[in-house]
Amino acid sequence: MLRLEPRQEPSEIWRYASPLLALLMTCVIGIAVFSSMGIAPFKGLSMFFWEPIKSVYALSELLVKATPLLLIALGLSVCFKSNIWNIGAEGQFVMGAIFASGVALTANDPSQTWYWMLVVLAGMLGGMVWAGITAFLRDRFNANEILVSLMLVYVSVMVLNYLVYGSWKDPLGYNFPQTKTFDAVTQIPKLIPGTRVNIGALLSLFGVIALWLFIYRTHAGFALRVGGLAPEAARYAGFSSRSALWTAMLISGGCAGLAGALEVAGPIRQLTPFVPVGYGFAAIIVAFVGRLHPLGIVLASNFIQMFIFWELVGPRMLVNTATLSWSGLDPGQIERFARAQPDEGADPLAIDLVGPGDDRGGAKRRAHRGAFRPAPGAAHGRPDRGRDALAGGDLASAGDDQRRPRFRLRTLRAPGPR
């Protein structure tokens, strides 16, 4: 008779093989799901594994978005190894962005080419201050760091909204809730010309090396690991739990704040309400998928980002956005967004959209696929105006239905890098 018995110690083979097994099972389940939905399974999987790396531009965007995930996950791994559950890295990320923006907005001398360094340091300080609040409440009042750090996420977002809707709003920004665009001296220098990759990618790799040396080659790192694995043994050995708490929280907050600074002074170049996009929460998954090891986190950050690539980058890179109107609907119902992607069979754009069918009540819906014919004088196809708005085009369903609906294309944004 078969019987399950616990191992005396964890298997070294399965320690590294289990993530690969999980990936294989994910692919198998994905193939089954895609097949049941009538979708070509390998084409569906290619959208996750091939599209994000098939071109230089796609790879560069993957690096841009994986950098903050990597930095935040590195900091969180220190906390988790110390058995300190910092769940509020998103708030530390936001506060780092706020502190960095505050310094960036004070720049007034275009000759100070080193000013971006102050922006980065300010971001790290902001993240450390916000993490320090959690550490103080845990140290002084024995408050639960999970609840405190998580609630501080919402406080940081409120502070962000207060600033961008208030005193930091750009007076020339048409009342949009955003700061002015940061001066060039405050922006993170580009690493690869023609892309959005900046030296933040190098800083993150430096952080991987520094964290590995700290965790596995220093006395303080050893104390953190012992405190996480065996708190009683750590106390018996004389390792300070207070020191471990403050060290882990400040390192984690500094990494998250650095990620926030690199985000607002890099790709975004200003502070907006849309800075918090969930990096801090996604980094928790990245840290554990990477087995809390710096090298594993490097692989996990890029791997996880490939799954969320289309949510954050794909619409800007490969998908055109169109606002369509259907004259037969009420004004409140006619405006919607449809995805427009290049198609060899359409001239020049093929647009997939879902419009109401014959049932005007909206219960029955059907899909239409049509071709967009730009109005005379439209800027489509001109490389110097790839992102200009097009208007006045006519969109018709390409089906055989004689009653096919006609759409009026109000605006269209052609694909291209920011």
Note down, in words, how this protein is organized.
With about 425 residues, this protein is of the alpha+beta class. The protein is about 55% helix and about 10% strand. The protein has a six-stranded antiparallel beta barrel. A hairpin with an 8-residue loop joins strand 5 and strand 6. It is globular, with a radius of gyration of 25 Å.
List the helices and strands and how they pair.
Layout lengths: L11 H25 L4 H9 L6 H26 L7 H16 L10 H27 L3 H20 L35 H18 L1 H11 L1 H6 L4 H28 L10 H11 L4 H14 L1 H4 L1 H4 L2 E6 L5 H4 L1 E6 L7 E8 L8 E9 L20 E4 L8 E8 L5
Antiparallel strand pairs: 1-2, 1-6, 2-3, 3-4, 4-5, 5-6
Helix pairs in contact: 1-2, 3-7, 3-10, 3-11, 3-12, 4-5, 4-6, 4-10, 4-11, 5-6, 5-10, 7-8, 11-12
Beta-strand proportion: 5-15%
Task: Tell me the series of helices and strands, N- to C-terminal.
Answer: HHHHHHHHHHHHHHEHEEEEE
Per the principal axes of the C-alpha atoms, what is the gross shape? Answer: globular
Q: N- to C-terminal separation?
A: 63 Å
- Any low-confidence stretches, pLDDT <50, length ≥5? 312-418
Helix content: 40-55%
Number of strands: 6
Class from secondary-structure proportions: alpha+beta
Give the strand order of the largest sheet, numbering strands 1, 2, ... along the chain: 1-2-3-4-5-6
Key words describing this protein structure:
418 residues, alpha+beta, six-stranded antiparallel beta barrel
How would you summarize this macromolecular structure in one to three sentences?
The protein is α+β, with helices and mostly antiparallel strands and 418 residues long. It has helices spanning 12-36, 41-49, 56-81, 89-104, 115-141, 145-164, 200-217, 219-229, 231-236, 241-268, 279-289, 294-307, 309-312, 314-317, 331-334, and strands at 320-325, 336-341, 349-356, 365-373, 394-397, 406-413.
